[in-house]
Design brief:
The protein is an all-alpha fold and about 150 residues long. The protein has one domain: 3 helical TM bundles of succinate and fumarate reductases. The protein is elongated. Bound molecules: protoporphyrin IX containing FE. Protoporphyrin IX containing FE binds next to helix 1 and helix 3.
């Protein structure tokens, strides 16, 4: 069997099995577990933001988001969604790159780019969620001015 030929599905392993952690297996499990959690998190997110508020999608504005980010519950909901979705998306893209990119160097470079992009977005997103301050840089012509003055 050459590297380009797939073994029969039930064929015994020809090479000795790797001991150690099987990252591919855990990646496979991660995709399923995160997929189930993402269904709840994403559809909950869409319902709470777009369907539940009075006026539906028209109620969505800066104040609505500021209100949600004032609550640790929604902060953690959004951060969990961010982490799970980015790692899920990056691992899914890694699978696609591994399947379709034949050149080993290009494949390795693309997988690095995927994980670096995911890491940067996860760090930035997490910082935004936990450091969000609606009063930062607010000016007297803003509708938030009075509220922010009262808070200060
Ligand atoms: C609604 C919740 C979601 C569920 C239930 C779900 C489920 C899954 C599952 C089970 C797989 C593995 C498929 C396989 O190995 O054959 C997968 C792959 C993938 N998912 Fe998701 N996913 C969800 C959301 C997302 C999101 C939000 C993204 C993007 C950030 C995403 C991007 C991907 C990618 C790129 C793949 C790889 C596709 C491939 O291998 O061809 N998924 N998804």
């Amino acid at each position: 069997m050459t590297a380009d030929t797939l073994a029969a599905p039930r064929a015994p392993h020809s090479a000795p099995r790797n001991k150690g952690v099987n990252l591919e297996k855990w990646g496979w499990i991660y995709m399923r577990v995160s997929g189930v959690l993402l269904v709840v998190l994403i559809f909950g997110h869409l319902f709470v933001n777009l369907v539940a508020p009075e006026g539906g999608v028209h109620a969505l504005n800066f104040a609505f988001v500021a209100g949600k980010f004032a609550s640790p519950f929604w902060q953690w909901w959004d951060v969990l969604m961010l982490w799970l979705a980015f790692i899920h998306g990056a691992n899914g893209m890694r699978t696609i790159v591994n399947d379709y990119v034949h050149n080993a160097k290009v494949r390795s470079a693309l997988v690095w780019v995927i994980w670096i992009a995911a890491a940067v977005m996860i760090v930035l997103g997490t910082l935004v969620v936990f450091t969000f301050d609606p009063c930062l840089g607010v000016t007297p012509d803003s509708t938030l001015w009075d509220m922010c003055q009262a808070q200060a």
